Amino acid sequence: MKHMMKMTTATVALCFASGGVLAQDATLTIESWRAEDQAIWDDVLIPAFEASHPGIQVDFAPTAPTEYNAALNARLDGGTAGDLIVCRPFDGSLALYQRGHLADISDLDGLDNFPDFAKAAWQTDDASASFCVPMASVIHGFIYNADAFAELGIEEPGTVEEFFAVLDTIQQDGTYTPLAIGSADQWEAATMAYTNIGPTYWNGEEGRQALIDGSAKFTDPQYVRPFEVMERWADYMGRAFQAQGYTDSQNLFTLGRAAIYPTGSWEIGGFNDQAFFEMGAFPPPVEAEGDTCYISDHTDIGIGMNTATDNPEAARAFLEWIASAEFAQLYTNALPGFFSLSNAQFEVEDPLAQEMISWREECESTIRVAHQILSRGEPNTWNNMWTVSANVFNDAATPAEAAAALQQGLEAWYEPQQN
Amino acid sequence: MTNIASTGRARAGRARGLSTKAAVHTVLLGYTIIAIFPVILVILNSFKNRRGIFSDPLGLPRGETFSMEGYATVLTQGDFATYFANSIIVTVSALFLILLLGAMAAHALAEYRFRLNTLLGIYLILGIMVPIRLGTVAILELMVDLNLVNTLLALILVYTAQGLPVAVFILTEFMRTLSRDIKDCARVDGLSEYRIFFEVVVPLIRPVLATVAVFSMIPIWNDLWFPLILASGDATKTVTLGVQQFIGQYTVNWSAVLASLSIAILPVLGLYALFSRQLIAGITSGAVKG
Amino acid sequence: MSEATTEQEKTAREAKPPKRRKRRVGGGWHIFVFIAPAVLIYTIFSIYPLVESLRLSLFDGLDDGSAVWNGLGNYVTLLFNPTWATQFWNALWNNLILFFIHMVVQNPIGLLLAALLSLAPRFGSTYRTLIFIPTLLSVVVVGFIWELILSPLWGVSETLLGAVGLAWLYQPWLGLESTALTTVSLISVWQYVGIPMMLIYAALLSIPDELIDAARVDGLNGWWIFWKVKLPLILPTLGIVAILTYIGNFTASFDLIYSIQGALGAPNYSTDVMGTLLFRTFFGQQLQIGDIHMGATIASMMFFIILIGVTIYLVLVQRRLQRYEM
């Protein structure tokens, strides 16, 4: 291990020494988990960059999400990872920075184009160093089959009770599965259910910060309530949802067999290609008419520089471009549902994406509750959240038990929660 | 040497009545259906469009459901010819090394008494007990030092190292049961130890070699991890990795996914058919045991 | 040669008649030439990297990636810290269930199929080839196929059950805690039954005809010949099958479970095995960088557990089995 670290340091020194010379005619490789985006990078984004940066070639080389982190970590340790690393937010990437795999890019001019909350996802806790350029956030909510809604004469629900009334109507009609979500892959239960509707109950940022500073516990009612609501969802999730995986749910919805899809905005691009009906979207329903609505506007994806890159100058040039208004515009529209975090003005063309980004005006934004600081220890709160959220759907845990499991896991290692 | 297959058939014919025969076929046929039904299902549905796959998964592709769009996507989007070539080069080379080196080592262990024999025997099978994947980072560093990253040779070396323990284990067990007399006769005739191995021992262990070949081939062909880590470049990508990435890119496009799966299945079947003939020939001709 | 070695030697060879037991007393370059290439490649590309990794289990990682000596501390954590111990014992237990299912389902089916094939029925080679096909498939393919078939959405299994009037039997087996592990095991059995079948088939075919004929002269019928003559003769092969099953259960099972149920062994860790626990610990997850030190500790435990099994096999089973040999 030690020998490895030494080697890495040596390589880094070497690279920086020779970096300037190599800046021209460099090939940059991007590591990413977004295999779906291959065509967009190849056909839209990379040509745009290469047009304005002659001499630099870019190669988008994604790894499937299931293997991404493992493969990336191995390649980083072995010294063969790509020049540019697409970053998960918060604790995952922070660890890579601490180990010297992600370069400190605090002095990148382009970072000034981003608001503080966006940069925070890829900074040290004291905000003294930045290691990834924010690319996009994704917004959670619900996408629905608008044709089905029209056919059944139902409208977008605003409150939780309206939401369940809508589900009842769809259920009684019987043509559609009310909710397209399953528990087989577990992560949707945490992502598209718990952290989607949860902020409404724990008041977004307020509740998230309270967990971090230790003034609230997962067993407090505001964190148990979302589980109670999810328990009610189970009745509307379609038969045998326990074995329904992520792609199953996508297919169920896009083939027109389900009415509502609890979602993240990243689905929009794929759904536009696959669905043959009109779609609409609504934010997480509130408890009572007139309550403030909260959305999970999650800083999801950034991009940083491998400290071991042979072409730091070219890599920095690429990162500056990622931070530019041009990229914000291109990316947001090439991948509807991935919303640039840039301060730059950009037009969102896709109607569904437009609808979802407009919630930023009406609702309070927050991020996924487990992502910052709370997932640094063992057991990992985010992993735990996958399992317990799926357990609630599967009736393998009561809401109280699920919350207790989260709290117990967090208390095991997180000091502010230990008294 | 008598032909085992024909005497076996004669033997079976003598002793069994019609009903026994029927029972044998029922069981074999039944299990065969269980074994290949899922595979057929995939191939069948790869010729349908997405709606057809979902509305009638068990039906044959017909007028409105028939579609080659999946194959069209696969063939235009992925460079599967290269991937196949890579997989075949890697699998065949690694197999050759595993069989040759494995048989040589097994022969030494089974045939000669020397210092450290038992110890070496145990040492050589230790590798079965830990998944080699664990050594990933050290392997990767090694390959970086040897300048072998993104070469097929890197994969061949790792797979050879990974396949040797099982090969040595099985081959040694079988070689110990070989008759000593034949080898001793050869020695009396003045054959060198090398010629004894290649001309006397190897022909005798052909059935086992074929068996080991088939077993070793499977994890090599199907491995996803080392291609991902050691040779994920476009020029060195293997079929399994290609398919997996393809699935990642076209998650919801099931026609394309099923088409790529079908395409991935075919070459293994071909390779197996190739070995299979050897396997059967080996089993039936070399079936005389010590 | 040390005394221990001679003792083992003797044990291993015990069953042979004295004439066979005597191996060529060695020396000479040829032994080196025979064994060196294998040992070399194996040492460089397998043992060295593994030792490098397992060594890590004796260290503890710091945030900056450096390591400090921790003795057996990680092992204590794994076995006694509730967070780790729960996962560890759960995974080990699931592995043992997996092994049990393979032993009582896969290997008997393999034996049955091999026995039937060894009767040389018509189309025997066609059956054998077709039955072996699943074994050749990548887990990517197998996982995908079975998820589809068992998926509630696609409805294949439901339709098939319905065809025989059993539609009510349908359950989302892969998604239920009570059935997920068994279902994955059976998928694995489906895939790998070809291996015991082939090994046993080869062993059955290599039984000399004279023995069978002798038994027949003694008036034994087919069933008794199988039971009294053939089965004892193929016991060493069954031993190999058992030990390969045991080892494969820890190493190979990982890929299938990972591809179908994910790194967390869904649902609710009911299909979590040593392999998945090791993988997610060693290589990390979305928000978690891999903990190579705990990962190496889990891997080392796995190694010891497999070693115990192999030792039991070598010392007890193989010794006893060889007594049956001629």
UniProtKB/TrEMBL annotation, chain B:
PROSITE patterns attached to this UniProt entry: ABC_TM1
BP term (GO), one: transmembrane transport
Membrane-spanning intervals of the chain: 22-44, 83-106, 118-140, 152-175, 196-221, 254-275
Membrane topology: Multi-pass membrane protein
Entry's localization field: Cell membrane
Keyword DNA repair: no
Gene Ontology annotations for the cellular component aspect, listed alphabetically: plasma membrane
UniProt keyword list: Cell membrane, Membrane, Transmembrane, Transmembrane helix, Transport
One Pfam family this sequence matches: BPD_transp_1
Keyword Chaperone found: no
Domain ABC transmembrane type-1: 84-275
Organism domain of life: Bacteria
Family: Belongs to the binding-protein-dependent transport system permease family.
Name of this protein: Carbohydrate ABC transporter permease
Automatic annotation (TrEMBL), chain C:
Membrane-spanning parts: 29-51, 96-117, 129-149, 189-208, 229-248, 292-316
Ranges for region Disordered: 1-22
Domain of life the protein comes from: Bacteria
PROSITE patterns: ABC_TM1
Cell compartments where the protein resides: Cell membrane
GO cellular component terms listed in the entry, alphabetical order: plasma membrane
InterPro entries: ABC_transporter_permease, MetI-like, MetI-like_sf
Biological processes, Gene Ontology terms: transmembrane transport
Domain ABC transmembrane type-1 per the UniProt entry, residue ranges: 92-316
Keywords (A to Z) from UniProt: Cell membrane, Membrane, Transmembrane, Transmembrane helix, Transport
Membrane-protein topology: Multi-pass membrane protein
Biased composition (Basic and acidic residues): 7-17
Family: Belongs to the binding-protein-dependent transport system permease family.
Protein name as annotated: Sugar ABC transporter permease
